[in-house]
Amino acid sequence: MYSQKNHTIENIMQCNNVISEINSYYQILAPIQFTLESCSGTEESDYVNFVLTSPGESYFYHFQNGNEIHQFNNRVPHFHDFYELLIVLDGEIQQQIENTTIVFRSGSCCLMNRNIIHKEVFHSKANILFIGLSERIIRDLIEDEKNNYFQKVSDLTINPVIKFMIDNLNKADTKEYLDFLPSINNINWCHTLHNLTDRILRAILSPQLGSTYIIKGMLLELIEYLSSPEQFHITPVHINSDADFLLFSHIGHLMEETNGRLSRSELEKTLHYSGNYLNSIVRRYTGLCLFDYGMTFCMKKAASLLQASSLSISEIMDTLKFNNTTHFYKCFEKHYHMTPKQYRIQSRSKVQNQDKI
């Protein structure tokens, strides 16, 4: 159903100011809504398919040929009254977030709060999933948790994703989003995200007694998976942060995960940027080259192991992938101005003195 000013997707969404030259505003009409977007490319023979579904209705839209895709890409940005989780299942998508353009690639996720002005732009083949979460369903999840049967289950409100949305409920004028980057060891992210979202979709499309609770439970399972430090690195991003800051955060997360022993080529492959560019980003924020920045994480881990573990110095070298004793000692002394042995003796002596106090 169309009008000059508004476009209603019945039981799913109300789109306001669609003819505005500035931005449009979307209001969700369902507690949860899924939009699967598939783009084959941006040439004349390509297409974009949209499938929208909610507990109330489902719709299908089709853009055929490069001209229609171009028109879609050049529509005005929008903001909305719901939280939006973007999951890039395959390919990559550009997100214009306020005045910054971010490229989200396969495996990346992004959770927008309720008032960021943004739009997605297709520039190549991609399959992406948007999950719209109403204020109602977030409040329902929080309220339902009060009846939790299991005392050992963590408080829902300390979950970083839930906390992000609660904070926005209390401060609706904030503009920020959460960026999710799969960890190096999370090689099954695709299978897991496909499985979790497919199960929620099936519960929506084939409702039965108890489906409301099933959907809520699986949504919490998805949120818990995204919140796991072993599976994803989460970066809160304010809209006044530039794209380089987000990339620098990604580099830092990956260096921390690998104790700084991630090669330039591995970093290039993971982040899809040239080593020279990654090096320039690190130098801009730290004054260090990429190798020296990685070594700060490595030496920090070495110091931690010297202080808290019973591993020998040679075992610590092996753990941190050093095969040259002289090189390891040189790096450690550069950071801590003493040998590894001296550091171990000094740090343990401090601990013993503190225990006596």
Overview of the molecule:
Helices cover 43% and strands 25% of the residues. It is an alpha+beta fold and 357 residues long. Strands 4, 5, 6, 8, 9, 10, 11, 12, 13 and 14 form a ten-stranded antiparallel beta sheet that branches. A four-stranded mixed beta sheet has the order 1-2-3-7, with no helix packed on it. The model is unreliable at 1-5 (pLDDT under 50).
Largest sheet: 10 strands, antiparallel
Proportion of beta-strand residues: 15-25%
Shape: globular
> What's the Cα radius of gyration?
24 Å
Indicate the mean pLDDT. Answer: 90
How much helix is in the residues? 40-55%
Give a topology summary.
Elements: E1 6-9, E2 13-16, E3 24-28, E4 32-39, E5 47-53, E6 58-64, H1 66-73, E7 78-80, E8 83-97, E9 100-105, E10 109-112, E11 118-121, E12 126-133, H2 135-144, H3 160-170, E13 176-182, H4 189-205, H5 211-227, E14 232-238, H6 243-257, H7 264-271, H8 275-286, H9 290-308, H10 313-319, H11 325-336, H12 340-356
Short description:
The protein has 357 residues and is an alpha+beta fold.
Name the features.
10-stranded antiparallel beta sheet; disordered N terminus; 12 helices; alpha+beta; 357 residues; 43% helix
